[in-house]
Amino acid sequence: MIFGLTFEYSKEMSGVVHTNTAELFLVGQDASNMTGNPAGVCYPTTTEEVQDAVRWARANGVAFIARGAGTGLAGGAIPTEGSLVISLTKMNRIRNIDIHRRTAWVEPGVLNADLSRHTSQFGLHFAPDPSSQQSCTIGGNVANNSGGPHCLSEGVTSAHILSLEVVLPSGEVCVFDSENSLFDLRGAFIGSEGMFGIATAIEVRLLQNPPHVSTMVVGFSSVHAGAMAVSSIISSGIIPSALEMMDAPITRAVEEYVHAGFPLDAAAMLIVEIDGLEHSVSHGSREVKEIVMRSGATSFTVAQSPVERALIWKGRKTAFGAIARIQPNYYLHDTVVPRKKLAEVLSRVTQIADEERLQVMNVFHAGDGNLHPILMFDKRIDGVMDRVHRAGAEIVRVSLEAGGVLSGEHGIGLEKRDFMRWMFSENDLMFQQKLRSAFDPDGISNPHKVLPRGSGCADIASIPPGSWV
Amino acid sequence: MSTVSGFFQAVNEEDLNTCVNCGLCLPHCPTYRVTGEDMFSPRGRINLIRSVKTGDLELTKEVVHALDTCIQCMGCEPACPSGVQYHSIISPVKAELHDRWKWRDVPLRCGLYIVTHMRYLRFFTRVLSVAQKIKLVPKRLPVPQVSFRRRSFQLRGGNTSDKEVLLFTGCVMDAWYRKVHIDTVTLLEALGYSVKISGDDFGCCGALHEHAGFARSAKKMQRNLSRRKSPQTIVVNSAGCSASLKNTLATTHVVLDINELLYRHLSDLEELLVQRKETVLVQEPCHLRHVQGISHEVNELLKISFTIAQLADDGLCCGAGGSFSFSQPEMATAVRVRKVAEMERVIELGSPKAIHYVASANPGCLSFLSGSGINIEMVHPVTLLAQSLASEYSKGDKQ
């Protein structure tokens, strides 16, 4: 019994901490393959309750971790042994919407898609649209600086957060914005994966829904041709609102589920979306068509109705879940490479998977070179996990060699923590650790994540059992 | 992982392994929506079942509670990109829980016993109607206003027999919502069908029992039912029953939900129905939308006569769930509060800000939502359509 299992620190919180084994087992997981072993979970509903929980944790030397919907893929939400999970799913109110400034104050537990759905009555939406947008929370988007298909033209989460109310690991409440403080600390906080405290209210920028949208599905006879088409589109000066690629195996798996009319005979398919005013949309799509045809497209279709468009995106965004139709387990990777190296890295990925005798599928944000190779396997087969680890590490290495980076949008979490040294120097890591210590001197806010062991004295504990990287 | 507990062995391991823990089901689960806790989500429940089965987790009272509070609305199934067959996981689990702790559901068992024995149900209905008359029944109880006397069917007959159908009258639907049956007959006859009535002796579909976990009783009823003689086509106007009958009689009969059948006659109905000024809010029953995949059909039908308002909650359950609102009133009410709030939001946003009817094609949803205290008339879409029949087709004028 690590902390008497009630919040004696605060009367209001006592009894609010759930400690039954089943619940702890569930909050010890997210959408990755890792698991952790927390000691308690609480569900605050106000900023003050979050403060209570954080203060209690600090006073008792217990680590805490903020949790949203648990849809992360890098293990960022996996609690360390004996920690307190502060689940923010019950803080899910949209506090207000200012339609003139086009902003909204929301609590961290608001679901990404719910926010856009709620603001659609004013013709507004929240631009970051990760594939898990129907389930993931705005708080989680802030922690991971999430992207999504439409971030190609609109920018990732950090471009859409105006201010943040944060409970620091000391228990104090702070507001980070560009106007009322000396330093604009939003940039440090967004993407800090829960190490700098807990955001309890978030002011987001809302964008006007585009008046016209054209969504095109283009088939290619090879992945290489598709990748070259992506490069040509971007270099022609057109920035589509989304530019996505899927290879043949994933297209087939998804088509079976959504029936969106994807080209099943193509070796790769692109989803190109252009939005804006009517004239620019029609001009842009004409030009895209010319470019893809020149690049050897084998099929070209345009969504004829909002229903068809929705179906295409449903297919794209549920792609990773559709894998269970092929293998029971998957490992979804996330690296970024320069666009012109796309084709080259992709063929290396296929080669790596072949060498480790694993099936691989590719679905990715081609427009910004963000790869998502998905390794599929059945973990009940002996030794398969070793092969998956090796292949995963090799994919990261190949991406870095091509001039890429570790992660596009899933974050580092536990998954890529030990790869950080492949990319950053000891000095880089030391300064990142110093920044972390400035926010969280005791190292109790989501410890052991992102920064590899040894980059600071605060991080000396073990990886949660069952986790792997 | 290799150890095996004595629990949930009836659940297929492959079904459990199809779940990849992605979490895309979460927002489609009404109990997760109102609690925000993983214990009350499809992903969480699958995880619990899997771990109890393998012996990694004990079957504690918290686990039982998490499984008991699944409404089985199946909203998670169409949302699942991996195609997890959630019903084939949860049904045997519910059955096992009820088998192991029989005493838990004595009141429910009694209630369902009455329901399946039409003589008792009719008697109970009369008592209920008297009690309602003298205001002994609180309004928030999930029962509709019932009448002491039973209205009888007046079949017009005379239609050609190649369009013969059987109207499955069922149990609660017939005792409490006879009017919907009469309206169904009116519509079917206006479309040229010759209608036969299944009646009390035909039997119950067993959907309520199966849903509540009384698998054996349900099986027995389904077996009895499949022995009955009836016309080839069976029409059902309760979404829960049509979903169940489609399974039971899959090989022998064509079972159609009334909305499905009427939708086939959309153009005929456009001739028959008159325009009306009212606005209807459509509440989609889970067993129609998630289980049978019938969704836009109801809207298209009602659109002929009415202005339609739709909820923007992806067909989230209202909390009724067969007998769920009796066995888990707390969770059911929480889910209903959310649903009513969503309805009020739609009314607030609508122009004009008035909803005249809420239409739902399932008796459970109708009665449970009426108990919420929301001041809008809850009706079956069939009733609205029958009321909109041009006068020469409606029954009243013929007699």
Account of the 3D structure:
The complex is a heterodimer of chains A (469) and B (399). Chain A folds into four domains: 21-87, 2-Layer Sandwich (Uridine Diphospho-n-acetylenolpyruvylglucosamine Reductase, domain 2); 94-208, Uridine Diphospho-n-acetylenolpyruvylglucosamine Reductase, domain 3, CATH 3.30.465; 212-317, Alpha-Beta Plaits (2-Layer Sandwich), CATH 3.30.70; 327-401, 2-Layer Sandwich (Alpha-Beta Plaits). Chain A has 14 helices and 19 strands. Chain A has helices spanning 21-27, 47-59, 112-119, 138-144, 151-154, 186-189, 223-235, 248-258, 278-294, 306-317, 342-355, 384-401, 420-423, 426-439; strands at 40-42, 64-67, 84-87, 94-98, 103-106, 124-125, 161-167, 173-177, 198-205, 207-208, 212-220, 242-247, 268-276, 297-302, 329-332, 335-336, 359-364, 370-371, 373-377. In chain A, a hairpin with a 5-residue loop joins strand 7 (161-167) and strand 8. In chain A, helix 7 (223-235) crosses helix 9, helix 7 (223-235) runs antiparallel to helix 11 and helix 11 (342-355) runs antiparallel to helix 12. Chain A is globular, with a radius of gyration of 22 Å. With 399 residues, chain B is α/β, with parallel strands linked by helices. Among the domains of chain B are: 13-100, Alpha-helical ferredoxin (Fumarate Reductase Iron-sulfur Protein, Chain B, domain 2, Orthogonal Bundle); 266-387, 3-Layer(aba) Sandwich (Rossmann fold), CATH 3.40.50. Helix content of chain B is 49%, strand content 8%. Chain B has helices at residues 13-17, 30-35, 42-54, 61-68, 76-79, 86-100, 106-116, 118-133, 172-176, 178-190, 207-212, 215-227, 239-248, 258-264, 266-272, 286-289, 296-303, 324-327, 329-349, 363-370, 381-387, 395-398, and strands spanning 164-168, 194-197, 233-236, 254-257, 279-282, 307-310, 357-359, 377-379. A four-stranded parallel β-sheet of chain B has the order 2-1-3-4. In chain B, helix 10 (178-190) packs across helix 21 (381-387) and helix 14 (258-264) crosses helix 17. Chain B is globular and about 65 Å long. The chains are: A alpha+beta (469), B alpha/beta (399).
